[in-house]
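To close the chapter, one final illustration. This time we ask the reader to focus less on the individual chains and more on the assembly as a whole: which components sit near each other, and how the overall shape emerges from the parts.
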Amino acid sequence: MEVKNKQQGIKVVGDVLDIVGGKWRGQILAHLCDNPKRFNELKTVLNRITSSTLTKELRYLEDIKMVERKVIQETPMVVEYRLTKHGMSIKDLIKTIVEWGLKHREIVFKKN
Amino acid sequence: MEVKNKQQGIKVVGDVLDIVGGKWRGQILAHLCDNPKRFNELKTVLNRITSSTLTKELRYLEDIKMVERKVIQETPMVVEYRLTKHGMSIKDLIKTIVEWGLKHREIVFKKN
DNA sequence: AATACAAGTAGTTTTTAAGATACTTACTAT
DNA sequence: ATAGTAAGTATCTTAAAAACTACTTGTATT
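The assembled structure is written out below.
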């Protein structure tokens, strides 16, 4: 790691994991990497997430400007979530995570 | 993301985050990227972690074969933790996380 | 008038992660 | 004999994340 201040570099890991960690955030971001998705689309692909949890996570991601919410139709109300311009910067990180995970399955899945 | 099965690729995000996520695991792995460290060294650099939490996290990382524990001296007992050969594979991922975090501080730190 | 749908909200409960505090073991040094 | 050190363990409590269940709003359909 060729970072000037190593201690600070390592602390930042915790901050990034606040954004991408937890049970759902990483997955939500991963799904939005491909293309925008509606609330219920997300709810379907994220098997077993509840409405309230999904709402909470999306609000958080909006607050930190990773995701934006756009009402695309008033009636029936249709809402679309997409990565912000800034949020797009997470794509490579997500990709790295997915690649590592697929390559190291036998261990990743150990817990099961 | 040029992964064959996208759904599966995304699910793996959750599994990887089990390994690297939480309040401490990412930081522990990051510290071990540089070189092996003793229990109390880790305890010192990980400001405010308790013994019991550190032990728990290290045992988990051992269980999944990311980290190995080596008694290097019986008395006074000295124990060293290091990444396994397999664990080394996480270095690039940690590096990517750190880099993203440093670059996007203004947002990462928003919560404070 | 009743039903359905999208996108939620509200309130409560359960589960999990992490923290606090105190103790332990095997030894060495004073 | 007492204190100190490294690396823990054992319990218990607290706090935070996620789940569960039910309800809401506005509109359109049968």
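The beta strands of chain A are 37-38, 67-73, 78-83. Residues 90 and 102 of chain A are 18 Å apart (CA to CA). With these observations in hand, you are ready for the problems at the end of the chapter.
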